[in-house]
Amino acid sequence: ALGVALGGAVLGAIGLGAGYWYYSRDLPTVEILRAYEPDTVTVVTDSKGQVLGEIFEERRYVVAIDAIPKHVQDAFIASEDANFWNHAGIDYMGIVRAMGRNAVQGRMAQGASTITQQVARNFLLTKDKKLERKIKEVILSWRIEDTYTKEHILYLYLNEIFLGAQSYGVEAASRSFFDKGVKDLTVAEAAILAGLPQRPSDYAPNRHWDNAKGRQKYVLGQMLDKGYIDRATHDAALAEHVAIAPVENAFREQAPWFTEHVRRYLVGKYGEEAVLQQGLQVTTTCDLDLQRVAQKAVTDGVDDADMRMGFRRAGLEHLADAAAIAERRAAHDLALRTRAALVEDPAGRLPVPERSTLAVGGRYPAVLLEVSKTWARVGIGTHEAVVPLAWSDWVYDPDPARSWRSRVASDFTDPVDVDGDHKPDGALLQPGDVVKVDVAALSTLDPALVAAFAGTPGAAASLVAARLYQNAEAEGALFSMDLNTGAVRAMVGGSDFSETQFNRAVQSRRQVGSTFKPIVYAAAINSRKITAASLIPDAPIAFATEEDTVWKPSNYSNDYLGNITIRRALALSRNTVTVRVLESIDPGMNGDVVYDFARALGIGGLPTHALPADRVSSPQNDLLCPWTREKRDSTICMDHFPPRTDPDKSNTAHRAALKPDEEHSCRACDYSMALGSASLTMDELVRAYSAFPTGGKLVEPHYVVEVKDRHGKVLEAHAPKESPQVIDAGVASITTWLLQGVVSEGTGNLARRELGLNGLGGKTGTTNDEKDAWFVGFTPDIITSVWVGFD
């Protein structure tokens, strides 16, 4: 019997050895865990160190084990592997306890994987649930325990584990849920994090507070039972008010246009893998404070421009009956409730599940319920809001014959106007319309609003106060650069990054209108044929071509001032004067005078070059505008117009013969170029203008100050360099003086009144049918361009 037993033991040992050999023969080495360099976050900051955005595949910040507080370590150990410090990779007693509990409950109620096993599985194996994988996991756990200290194993675990909200590791999760680093977590907060590994989504505190609170209670109980905390600490942590931060996407929330532009640059230079996984540290030229102001300015400016164009009744959805209205309000309420349910209270951000997130400044769909003479009532989900119509006077069609006070409810509710004519789309506002509102206050009982709502039905019941709003059809952009360094301080590519990521500041080529005129005037001054004191006729002019067509530029105001100075002509943006100036320095457009000058300013995507001081003209370069020579040779300037048999031809503004070359739209192909038919990007235009206030030096914009790798090694750093002298300093100075005249006494006067800045210069610009509106302005230190228009 003894021999049989010994034989069985030997055979069993041989079997175990064979099994160990079989399952371990192709296992990965645990040595790869020694130099832990996981995927981590590329952080993009502004020039002052404020975070602009994070770029990642896995949002992870690696922290040393001694930088993780002991109570955070204890919380995870108590929750996930209470015997961690004592076992050798496998908790055999834990397996027995789990098997017993699962047998009693008839389901998998408890697992038995140790932290070491989780490290083996997460780093070295797949997550399938086959027996073979489990055996390999056990073998690797033994090897990990033999090779590394418990501290290193815990370090790997706490930095690798997924905890929800796109967060891997305790540092990223701490920032996501509590808006603080892991080193600052309290015991109560640590217990919430430690409750996440099993079911991160179900226990997420920002989404399921009751579940998270229940899990926190379990973790604190485990910490108490295992001796990690005493009763007093347990009770205090359980009673602690925990402020949950809204989980935000920093990439989209802070400076999305700037961050996305930098991301594209980084991917182009270092590759997508490096940007998404290698944790680059990127310092940009952006000033986040200025960027926020710029983003608000663009949004507000686009909204203002859109409202000036009136209310678009034709695009509204209309609900015909009470049942449809009730159904839509329920859908709106559900949308409000499915967002992160967090409200502010004096103690911080407090989680309140299943509660509406209606907020001041938020814009929401609403259903129009009632319209009176002075107010409207709308439903925003289950909320009701009062809309004072005096806050929404932009909705009215302009009527110079009546003031606001004489307007009546029929303006909104009657399908017939005051003259008895039927309105094309019926009444402006009708019950059942699905509109958008901008919430101004959560209560009409707000002390600042009580007077405004006195006498309004329902105001005493504390309704929401709101304004009518409509999504803008127009778009906008802004680009702002430091003239001393070329550092781009703010860049906005549109009104809403969530709608489109197309960056109109650097990706869109638009006709620049009258903002091109200063380049024509500067080229003229540089030619020595025109001075700032020259008198030029502001009078009708026309150009005829061999196709028997005529182009007659006219002024915006359709009037003429006679002989005026260059300064006054630019200040008032007189089209005819600009065209005459261009014709005088380049008769028949046979030379490249303005083209060469524009190229010196970096326009056209061609290499810039310094313009010789004696430069007047150069031979025609047919390669750059190959079809224009014949057309331009037949162009004739006429001070006196011959009679025309076809009035349509004589008033044609643009014909094929005078159409700018689409391939080289900056090219001086015709006289319309003087009025801004060239299409440029905003950064291209700003760069060109930079030469004027800097004495002729072309300032090259840049966006990145420094890039470091995850270890702090500098990969690139912007070295300040002297901007090249591209035009004569005297010409630049005179042009700057002309542009200051635009602001002090011309079309840009509003900028001076609003800003009150000395030395401010700039130029406005519009294109045909007001599809584009521009302003480029500068002080001695900064230059900024803004655009509003239609895509």
Overview of this protein structure:
Helix content is 34%, strand content 16%. The longest helix has 23 residues. The relative contact order is 0.08. Helix 2 packs across helix 9 and helix 8 packs across helix 9. It is of the alpha+beta class and 791 residues long. It contains 25 helices and 27 strands. A five-stranded mixed sheet has the order 2-1-5-23-24. A five-stranded mixed beta barrel has the order 9-10-11-13-12. It has a five-stranded antiparallel sheet with strand order 15-14-27-26-25, with helices on both faces. It has three domains: 183 residues, Biosynthetic peptidoglycan transglycosylase-like (Penicillin binding protein transpeptidase fold); 155 residues, Nucleic acid-binding proteins (OB fold (Dihydrolipoamide Acetyltransferase, E2P)); 246 residues, DD-peptidase/beta-lactamase superfamily (Beta-lactamase, 3-Layer(aba) Sandwich), CATH 3.40.710.10.
List the helices and strands and how they pair.
Elements: H1 2-24, E1 42-45, E2 51-55, E3 59-60, H2 70-80, H3 92-105, H4 115-124, H5 131-147, H6 150-160, E4 167-168, H7 170-178, H8 187-194, H9 209-225, H10 231-239, H11 250-253, H12 256-270, H13 272-277, E5 281-284, H14 288-308, E6 317-318, H15 322-337, E7 342-345, E8 348-351, E9 363-371, E10 375-380, E11 383-388, H16 410-413, E12 433-441, E13 464-469, E14 475-482, E15 488-492, E16 510-511, H17 517-526, E17 535-538, E18 542-544, E19 550-551, E20 562-565, H18 566-571, H19 575-585, H20 593-600, H21 628-633, E21 636-638, H22 647-650, E22 679-680, H23 682-689, E23 704-708, E24 714-717, H24 729-745, H25 749-755, E25 761-766, E26 772-778, E27 782-789
Helix pairs in contact: 2-8, 2-9, 4-5, 4-6, 8-9, 9-10, 17-19, 17-20, 17-24, 24-25
